[in-house]
Amino acid sequence: MPNEQIRQAALQHQMQLTKPPGALGRLEEIAVQLAALQHTLHPCVDQVQITIFAADHGVATENISAFPQSVTTEMIKNFAAGGAAINVLARTLGAQLEIINLGTLHSTDTLSNIKHYHLGAGTANFVHTAAMSEDQLAAALNTGRASVEQAQANNRQLLIAGEMGIGNTTSATALACLLLNAPPAQLAGAGSGLDSKGISHKINVIERALTLHRCHTHSPLEALRRVGGFEIAALTGAYIRGAQLGLPLLIDGFISTVAALTAERICLGSRNWFIYAHQSAESGHAHVLKALQATPLFDLAMRLGEGSGAAVAVNLLRMACRLHNEMATFSAAHVSTKTQ
Ligand SMILES: O=C(O)c1ccc[n+]([C@@H]2O[C@H](COP(=O)([O-])O)[C@@H](O)[C@H]2O)c1
Ligand SMILES: Cc1cc2nc[nH]c2cc1C
Question: Which of 91, 87, 113, 90 is closest to 100 using CA atoms?
Fold first, then answer.
């Protein structure tokens, strides 16, 4: 559990800093939350791990994305070459970046700076059958779990687990519909760029899938197996393990938040370790955040994924920590707050 005594002490410390109490708004909340999560009065997020899980989705053959499935593989090559948004952000932050391919249609095996776990050439098309077998689900969850254990062994202070996979907003939407008992029309959005006709078709595809799976889905794990993706399961495993190990987890956009909700449903209390970076432009994100009682830090109308919104939030967290740790107290600065 987050340390309640430290949380109270950190709150007290904020009250003594040379500013009107509360004047640094959510920066104060962040510092206090990180203090409680890290069990220290001096929170710090200098050492950041960013892990991106990538995979393909069988449901992409239903024409539910603005981009062809081959883009997943092409983007993994781009990650390997250092040219994607998350590469730039990770370099800016001095963060460790790890890319894990869990199973794509086309092989990326020749790329030496990518980790490969070939669970299949993407998931099965969940309009017709379960997306994953029991073994594939277990392997994907384990991959996420192992990546977090390695991050902890490397003394990382903050984890960002992100994703890349053409079609994964359809998978994440179907999963959120099952977990929240919500209709697809409420949660489905444009993903990487569908127009309104494309969104209507996407809703129809998800409705057909839910008709097949709903009555067989009696647990969040089974929902994940039936309509999830390899990378969404890896994210879920990473979030559960991060919470178990007591590592603060910075959550990115729509797909990441659906995985965070899945983690919370599988392992109650996981969400105590989540910090929500941003409100994605993907329309279903607001609903999923609400279900987690989450208020993200900012809304920049981003909808990229690959952990990018979370990466943008890191410097806010760092500034919150430094303000908490380095500002003078009223007594140290000899500032009297007594009115005449
Ligand atoms: O993170 C988000 O909120 C987000 C919203 C829309 C799209 N994406 C990214 O776009 C891809 C999925 O879009 P789509 O339309 O193919 O389902 C996938 O690689 C995600 O990382 C991500
Ligand atoms: C080009 C592109 C880059 C991405 N990064 C994460 N999701 C993505 C989707 C597309 C289409």
Answer: 113
